[in-house]
Amino acid sequence: STTTLKTSDHLRHVESMSTLPSGAGPISRLNAVILGESLASEEDHLVFPSEAFSMQAHVPSPQKYLETYARSIEDPAGFWSEMASGFFWKERWGPQVYAENLDIRKGKINIEWFKGGITNLCYNCLDRIIESGDGDKIAIFWEGNEPGFDGTLTYKQLLARVCQLANWLKDVGVRKGDAVVIYLPMLMELPISMLACSRIGAVHSVVFAGFSAESLAQRIMDCKPKVVITCNAVRRGSKIIYLKDIVDAALAESARNGNPLDVCLTYENESAMKRESTKWQEGRDIWWQDVVPKHPTTCAVEWVDAEDPLFLLYTSGSTGKPKGVLHTTGGYMVYTATTFKYAFDYKPSDVYWCTADCGWITGHSYVTYGPLLNGATAVVFEGAPNYPDAGRCWDIVDKFKVSIFYTAPTLVRSLMREGDQYVTRYSRKSLRVLGSVGEPINPSAWRWYFNVVGESRCPISDTWWQTETGGFMITPLPGAWPQKPGSATFPFFGVQPVIVDEKGAEIEGECSGYLCVKSSWPSAFRTLYGDHERYEATYFSAFPGYYFTGDGCTRDKDGYYWLTGRVDDVINVSGHRIGTAEVESALVSHPQCAEAAVVGVEHEVKGQGIYAFVTLVESVLYSEDLRRSLILTVRNQIGAFAAPDKIHWAPGLPKTRSGKIMRRILRKIASRQLDELGDTSTLADPSVVDELIKLVDC
Ligand code: 6R9
Hints:
By secondary structure, the chain is an alpha/beta fold. The protein is built from 23 helices and 31 strands. The protein binds ligand 6R9.
């Protein structure tokens, strides 16, 4: 069906572009263009891959991309079956490769891939690689917080460790389908725990170890795990974080609410804290080191259906309650592995490092599963990227000869501020591909990353995707395309993005609007845990017929996609998703806070900062102590990363007559665009705006 090709807008544009000779334009000419010069328009700036890079790439040219993309859209079943056939399936999937209904008007939203196929993700990550002869290859280079503190695991060693834990989990009664909450820092035990769960068909739910006791308790109460896995403490930079204390508080809270937990497996992280000083609840708490190593190093695999759940990961939405995003096994496996291979142009000789924490989706798909499924060697880093100084990342790159480096724009910007000398002090000659994720990367950070870190030789894969999508959706394929700094370029194979207007009508060509996706892809999330209605309402109702991403997007004249940020009440702080409603509900839980409205503001390093307008209860006076206490409340209820950057005292909030807070006005005040407040006449009391402006710098 060539109609797909004709209606698919970006294809038409890039087809005309693809008449450019592959690798046209030497890099040196481009550097002259990009260094320092301000461009009339970002979309006119093309950065070409070197011919040498393109020649060795999996996708060496626009033509090759176009061919493969067209095939993936015309025949998704055939395309994805072929991708899936590289994995081990105990039984092949049924005659129908996938089934989907993304149209709420036609009934229940439903997505299935490879149903009836019987497999196991852990088996495919480890046993399959070992059987192929790579058992002695390094799976994980682990680097501790303190330089010089490190370790390695080969594929065989990793499998043995995973099996020991899997056996212990079975011993304490964890069965297929049971939930296990993992609250660990970036120790090797974190990917080991994830893999052990998937080996026995248990559903892991990793909670980022920066979340507070209350957030952890909320997640525990929602998914009711059989076991929680944690460690006593961790060093991060120069700080020590006492994780076990946080877990104790969360478990107490959960027990108070009628959800007692029987088993808390605790890893003794000796370098941060000795077991003697760890608070302990006999009968419930068990030291990892006392039980896990005693278990056999082999463990039979629990074969599961492709559509059996693999993990739950909670993420923020526009209401206060976090959403348990559910991913299943088969499609997730095929998609994360395929995207990893193509978007990073992965080759078996690469050493790959993703700086994300396994507490986020990036750590699930591209620290643990995607790399291992490809038999890759990956770095797992426990520490902070600026400790002991801003050169740490490049020290690690040189130490392990990292060739693919994947991080977030916020880190790029913070290192950029520290100065080039921290980068150029190190060789970095092993690097060949760079990656970016979490938020739009601004063109100036892109250029610094490209020119200084990558010495103008490494393509940047700016991967746009979400917890919900499981894997990359819009991403450059290194070597295939000329890049544009700040654009995530084109959709991955099988992905059909569309841009719609407020009414949900698809817009063609050069345009801006809401980013939706019009057909399913293998690693799409299948539901929100225990709340399929919320899944349908949040993602499939705003624009019937499509999956709505929550992001705004522009497509330029050449068909390149430019993500412009969230259009809902979600703020993106240093790549972490935070719902404004979550912060607001934490603030109003403070006894002296009557009302709160939170908006995102531009922040030089974090991308967005959190700006909170706070109304106090009658007769309470503003003070510095109160400001601190409000911020502390948010830290305690959500986590330090959600602490507001600014508290703005608000005698009243701008509301419509129906009582809806006009965030549009608050955003303008927060970003000091005071002459662009727009129409305030629909407000119930327009004078509150003047009051707010008076208090701008209090
Ligand atoms: C993977 C991840 C998802 C939201 C997403 C968007 C933003 C992520 C981006 C990006 C522009 C990129 N986002 N990657 N925006 N360019 N390369 O971050 O998942 O934590 O669920 O956040 O992050 O706004 O909607 P998640």
